[in-house]
Design goal:
Bacteriocin As-48, Chain A; 9 strands; TIM Barrel; alpha/beta; 324 residues; eight-stranded parallel β-barrel
Length: 324
Amino acid sequence: MATLTLAPMEGVVDVYMRDMLTRIGGFDLCVSEFVRVSQQRYPASVFYHLCPELKNGGRTPAGVPVHVQIMGGEAGVMADNAAFAAELGAPGIDINFGCPAKTVNRHDAGATLLQWPDRLYEIVSKVRRAVPECVPVSAKMRLGFADKSLALENALAVEAAGAGKLTIHARTKMEGYRPPAHWEYLRPIRERLCIPVVANGEIWTVADYEKCREISGCDDVMVGRGVIARPGLGGEIMASRKGSIHSPAFGWPEIVTLIGEYRQLITGMGNPPREAGRLKQWTKLLGRTYPAATDLFMAIRRFDDPRDIMAVVKKMEQRAMAAA
């Protein structure tokens, strides 16, 4: 049965966004923001900070499992941290070989490792051996670092090392997030591997989701920026999977209400400037789907107090209700 996974996005898809999006619905699985592993086994507080759902059986309040993602280049230390995350109740471990950030890649982690398939094999195999068999281990990678020449070799290394699933962002590190995503490169990989291959990259609408599955041959899909820009996308995809006639899940009035709900969730940060930053960040991303969000962002972009932001949102909500 096809699955839809909510992608890990550092500083974007945190515990609050996972809570909101999984309550909206459509997702079978989430992956946490990465735990950057380096030189030591981290204390429980680090894992609880990035994946508070560990205190709730590894699930969001809506009941969707959250696998813990780890990232690093030292196989032994990665294995130690993976084993500890499993002890803390992680329902699954995911290994990040896809992060394109320069700061990450300069420190022997993320997509830079795609230059050495043998290192992918070593890391995955040590993590797999360190984690109880009942806890699934997966990995996420890109099609390559500078080019795509090692895409299949890297994927085969991950499978041979014992991963039970592989997610592939259909671009190289050097391509970053520039469109298009090269879904066509996923099909030959999927045809060679025995484990599930999950397609990821440039899925903004149900039509993109369906086209990605058709071109890649992958049943399973991971969505990231698309659902941040269109919060109802998971539900729309679920309706499509069930053969329902779907329409956009949310109009602008519903989005304004969601912004208010998100504001209530992020009060858990206890840091008003950070809360204001998250509100502005999400509002800007919503502008891809909702033109009114761009107007809202322009009105709030200089505010550092979430109360000032929500005063503007409230006015927009009142106008939207009056126009409905």
